[in-house]
Amino acid sequence: MTEFKIDEEYTIIKEKDTGFWHYSQNGVMMPKKAEKAFKYYSLNINNLDSLMNSYFHLSNPASFNDPFDCNINLLDSAEDIQTINEMTTVKRNNCSNLGVVSMTEIVDNHVMWAHYTDNYHGFAIEFKGTEVTVIPSADQTAGGTFVKVIYPKKLVKVKKEYPFAIQYMLTTKLKHWEYENEWRFITTLGPKKDRILHYDPEKVKGLYIGHQMIDNKPSAYRLILSIRARVFPNVPVYVVYPHPNKLELYFEKVLPK
């Protein structure tokens, strides 16, 4: 087998040269790298710590807001899959041996700012998509892959024996999530289940701050600017507002002036 048709829009195709499986959308191979990648954060102590110490938290899909995301029912005979830990809860996406970092290609979507930054109280960081450089530790057993999520109209099952089965399970979401334009960094955890994955702070290209943080949490805003001065002092900082005259977001550059 060299290809598998998921629906009328998506096909997964095996590359002749590498043997890797990649998605095709409407007959065109999907990009392997994003031009830009953004990570949204709500405002809490854990996310401020991750900003100060330049790391991603590797999420267990069980914590995702969509219970159908990474759902092992996408695979036939899912109970027999050895690469996924035995489930101990009713959740069908509890992959405790895997870590996922969710990012997106877009920073100007008002729904994303409302949902993922707690209504503009949080922030986002920007990477050049080809430079999401992570520093795996001994507790991550693989360097991981950075891959684009697909959004078929209907979720279909694939056989667990297929070589792309796990990739498909981890990168497939329902069509109504398509606005997120998501990319995922996926890695396998080591025996210690360490979920901290450091990135190179020199690869950060921008810092975006929701306007509600300035209005309602000014001490947090000052703290983030202090972190920026210490960790990536040359990175531009933007405050994100609803545009005063248009139905779109406005990005005011505040640093450097």
Automatic annotation (TrEMBL):
Native organism: Flagellimonas ochracea
Entry-linked InterPro entries: DUF2971
The name this protein goes by in its record: DUF2971 domain-containing protein
